[in-house]
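Q: I'm writing up a methods section and want to include an example of the input and output format. Could you take the sequence below and give the corresponding predicted structure tokens, formatted cleanly so I can copy it straight into the document?
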Amino acid sequence: MQRLAAWSDDHQSVTAIENVVFDGRKTRYDGLFTWSAQPAMDVRAPTAQLGLQHLHSADKTEVLLVGDRYYYRVDPQPSGPLKGRHWMRTPLPKSADGSDTATRGLQVNPEDGLRMLPDATGWTDLGEENLDDTVARHYRGTVTRAALSADSRLVQAVGTSPSALLAGADSAELDVWSGSDGKPVRWVTTLGTGRSVAVDLFDFGGPRTITPPAARDTTDAALIPGSPTMP
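A: Here is the clean output for your methods example:
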């Protein structure tokens, strides 16, 4: 698990597919995730899953995470806040006390899941499995909020609390698949009934910069009826 987690230290970006399930809502994100200076992403998500069909005609919508804001690329509107503008922005959702991202564990950067692996216990070797023509070994363990809280290196690295990493849960089941070359190819965090994150990891790389849209081409999602409150 230490070797698998090291991929998040030795690299600063990855192309991945992330599937998030949150209380019956499912969202898939395909694209680039980076964690050099801070977590950021440039991904595509099905427009219908985001509930943006009334604002975007394409089947998929580009979603950026830069700093503490999400940005959604939409179609410019003939009138209203989006007149002549291509992007709307929304802040990361916060917990009740405003200290953490409330749903961090339900829409995470891929390195967070890898960094949690060494803190999990009770690992079981479930044998080799075929993942899209890649043979990988499947392991399953359990991680607790208490174990994450005791890992000062992890808390410093992710810049948020263990409670946020686990979306408020006390514990989570972790599954990870390792390829024959020792590369992590998939991990799944199950936070409870109807709450999970599954990430397929492809090409790891160096630091990448994701630039937010120009302010003149952006408007606040709060001004637009029917805009999403979280990705």
